[in-house]
Fold this sequence. Notes:
The chain has 129 residues and is mostly helical. It is built from 5 helices and 2 strands. It has helices at residues 12-25, 38-45, 49-62, 84-103, 108-122; strands spanning 65-68, 72-75.
Amino acid sequence: MFELDLRSRSPMYEQLVEKIKDLIINNVLKPDEQLPAVRVLAGELTINPNTIQKAYRELEHRGYIYSVPGKGSFVRPAVTGDNTARLHALENELSRIVSEMLFLGASPADIITLIKAQLSKDEGGKPDD
């Protein structure tokens, strides 16, 4: 399910956080679906269980998963509540990306086309009804 780049400069736990986050955003991992147990995933990836635990803690801190003592970690359902701080951070990141694309020669029309294609591809990460 997960492949980590052992040669990457990015720490293993950060790679794992990004992989799981992508699976959640793209609705591969469904709301309330249980994540693999720490020891099982550590065995599959042949990495230290503490690395898995650190990634799960980070995902929980960011609001992507929740833990049930004695049961494991689960995908948190999408929250429609107050996400203004996270949305603002993502808006700043998007602004930085657009500025960089313009600097590298992409036209505004190309950027808009890419965004529209992404929105039509996955409906902005919204789960299927």
